Amino acid sequence: MPLEAFSPSATLVGTLTGGITSVERTLIAQSGRAQNQAARSVQKLFASRIDEALINLGRSNSTAISEQLLRDQSQLISRKERVNQAINVINQALDQFDHLKNHIEYLEEQIAALEAGDITATELSVDWDNKLRKINQLASAAGESIKDGDAYYQKNLIETRSRSSFSTQTLFAPYNSAGDTLQIDGVYLGTDYFITDSGGDFWNSDTGYAASEDAVGTLTEYSSYPNTPTGVSDSVTDLTLNSYDDSDDSISFDVAGTGTITGTVTKGGLGLLDAWIYSDFDNQTSIDLAKSNLETAEGLILTTEAEFLSDRATLQSRVSVFDSLISGIDSEVAILVEDLQDEARANLLATQLEFILAQFDFALLAARGNSLVQSILISQDEEDFGTNTNAGRVLISVGQTVNITA
Predict the structure, then answer these.
(1) pTM score, whole prediction
(2) 319 domain residue, yes or no
(3) pLDDT tens, 142-173?
(4) Which residues are bridge partners to 255 per DSSP?
(5) How many domains does the chain have?
(6) ∠ CA 134-140-146 to the nearest 5 degrees?
(7) Does a structural domain hold residue 78?
(8) Which of 58, 244, 268, 406: CA 20 to 30 A from 161?
């Protein structure tokens, strides 16, 4: 619409403001304050958006996917720790094997010395019983503490806690990330035995558990082991062996003041018996039996050692697998978080750039508005647009001119 359509008495400000002329000077004077308020509003708007982008950037590493990966990683780390615990238990057992073999070899050498006439049968009997004690000490030394939840347990693969069943502990170790386990059965490598007599009573010897090298073992009778001893016992050096048959483990012996006892021997662990059951090595048959028992004991030690070495190698390979899986999740989480942070950074940078552009645009508009207002004021002060029919000029910010003709 051409400017001539308006009333000749209208000023340029009145025209631009819709005909409001009475307060035109006040509005013009307040234009700077309005611009400042508008600028602050723009800044406040974008500041909140930037703050939100910063918060998202801080939270970008805790998404559901990354949290699940971290939970999986935690489970793998826990399984790896259990594998390492299992390896430690096996190592503790394996540490005793060389000593066990040395004791067996020592007894074999002592029997050879007896047969060569270098030592007496009595000397061998004392040495023999003392070695049984040392063998049991080695088996007991194979214990290792493992943690299960918040509690610690003693695990020993070559000792028994029962002198009536010779049962052993079983170790379960994580085998893979799917939760499968490797079962490692304990093998009793101490030595113990008991005798069940014809009346059903239980006879137990403490030779292998003597407190010291000088202590002499005692054979004790129980009507119910271990809580009800009958009161009958005797030193193993006072017992008289009548017979012992290794093929069926039948035995007959005399106890001072009690008479002849017949029964069956049940062997545990390495299967080595007190010297008195070998008739204190006073005949070749008993000596040969002791040699055979030593060979069997040595074979059990070697077989068990090979099995434990194989189990340890398997578990050690599992540690490598768990390490790879854990490292893989580390990388996966890192990549995921990096991608999330890159997206968050992109959002943050975009918001910041948008704010900068908005500030720039606002500055341009403000500059244009200021130039226009300034031109109006100057023109109105110099010329009376309400009465003058001559042309006036108003400069605007882009360097254009508006020709106004009344």
Answers:
(1) 0.68
(2) no
(3) 999 988 777 888 999 999 999 999 999 999 99
(4) 259
(5) 1
(6) 160
(7) no
(8) 244
